[in-house]
Amino acid sequence: MIPTHTLSRFIRAQERLHPGSTGELSELLSSIALGVKLISQIVTTAGFKGLYGYSGRTNIQDEQTRLLDEEADQVLVEILGSSGHFGLLVSEEQDSVIATDARQENAKYIVAFDPLDGSSNIGSNIPVGTIFAIYKKLDGRGPAKVDDFFQPGTQLVAAGYSVYGAKTTFVYSTGEGVHDFTLDPSIGEFVLTEKSIKIPERGNIFSINEGNSPYWEEGTKNYVSLVKTLDKSRGYPYSSRYVGSLVADFDRTIRKGGIFLYPASTKHPKGRLRLLYECIPLSFIMEQAGGMAVDGTEKRVLDIVPEDIHERCALVVGSRHDVKEYLSSVYDPKKA
Ligand code: P6P
What is the residue with the minimal CA distance to atom 13 of ligand 1? Predict the structure, then answer.
């Protein structure tokens, strides 16, 4: 079969649906896709290019950075920084915002990304990925500034993630559905795999690190206890799946349904995941696919306004039925 629907052609077709489009969004998504292709190549060959292991430095998260993290970060900073469309960048691997040569008036957009999430898993060939969130500057004129990142996810222009696994996938949304592409290395193109992904209304998989159970709040304990009971009339028990790599757990959830949880706990009072470049973009994708995304309370992740570029956030995301069951366990445990 000849692949006619490549990512670049799909993006252009989407652009033509909006008369007056300048084509900038198409260009910037293509820049990100190029970065993902390059990172895919780095990840695939890291094992024999001495790119495993640590760089000897630590990032703002006080985590030892891996050579691969820095390689992936450098790829995206260089490609996005030189695209001419991004005035500022935020990366998990960099302590502060990164000004680009397009910082001046002509750059409409800013982007926050996690260049290689889950990289601690890479030595055991577990899927890892890149996550990105794109905003417009608050003030169309003038240079981008850090406050431009302090917008709720409802203001996102686009968001997406890639998974470097058995295949390299690129999943993104510009607010008109979630679209999935698979990299065909033989032609170096992302080919459309699924248009308008929709998460099932209910799943039968729960995904949480049960090693953290001694630190969980009561609501989380109630919910995990519920999904593990033998109660066929309510469709329980669920299966447990936890990879420990966010993009892998999220991608399975959005395709098969169910729920992924990284809740607040006494060990992670604000959750472990990062709001700006993990929770917000993935919540945007999940809602576009018909799912739900909350911060472990009834608060919608997309309504949270970041106050710091690296702040953490609890995340409970997945099928509407399952996230609502979680919230019942938190707020009305007797009913659950
Ligand atoms: P834990 C990987 O290090 C990561 O940042 C996410 O990709 C993943 O979801 C989470 O941490 C796993 O955390 O505490 O369960 O090992």
Answer: 244
- 10 CA → ligand 1 middle, Å: 32
Q: Does the reported pTM lie above 0.85?
A: yes
Domain edge (last residue) among 139, 161, 194: 194
pLDDT at 21 over 90: no
Pocket test for ligand 1, best of 124, 262, 267, 315 (most atoms within 8 A of CB): 262
Q: Is residue 102 predicted with pLDDT exceeding 80?
A: no
Residue 291 has pLDDT above 70, yes or no: yes
How much of the chain exceeds pLDDT 90, in percent? 67
Judge if the upstream peptide bond of residue 263 is cis by omega within 30 degrees of 0: no
For residue 51, pLDDT beyond 90: no
CA 58 / ligand 1 centre spacing (Å)? 17
Confirm if 285 and 160 have CB atoms less than 8 A apart: yes
Q: For residues 283 and 289, is the Cβ–Cβ distance under 8 A?
A: no
pLDDT for position 47 = 61
For ligand 1, atom 5, name the residue with the nearest CA: 118
Give the Å distances, CA to CA, from 7 to 13, 14, 18: 10, 10, 17
Strands 64-66 and 54-58: antiparallel
How much distance in Å is there from the Cα of 138 to the middle of ligand 1? 32
45 plus 186 within the same structural domain: yes
Last residue of a domain, one of 194, 226, 249: 194
Compute the distance from residue 313 Cα to the ligand 1 centre, in Å. 13
